[in-house]
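Team,

Forwarding the record for the chain on the shared tracking sheet. I've put the sequence and predicted structure together so nobody has to dig through attachments.
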Amino acid sequence: MERTLFEKVGGEEAIAKVVDYFYSELVLKDDTVNQFFKETDMEKQRLHQSKFISFALGGPNQYSGQSMAKAHQGMNLQPEHFNAIVKHLHDALAHFGVNETDIDTALTKVASLRDDILFQ
């Protein structure tokens, strides 16, 4: 049986590291998107994001937060914001040695949520 991407990258522990890097080194240093996180409880955000990325990589779906549309309501996110986050996710996964094919698979899942996130 083929391992899920979630298992391939090293499970929850590895994903927590990806998420830390994603925010600390990429998202929060990017003026295109960091303003959206100024009032955010980053501890909670990291936890949500870890669960979301686990799910996107084929791991268990433990995400029980708000729907994507609700979570992004009132933010009026534009395509350039979405694209910046996707690029950072790509770079964070690549930083931890995930191969391009696997990254593409994960980002395809993320892309499927685009309409729930933009222009809310």
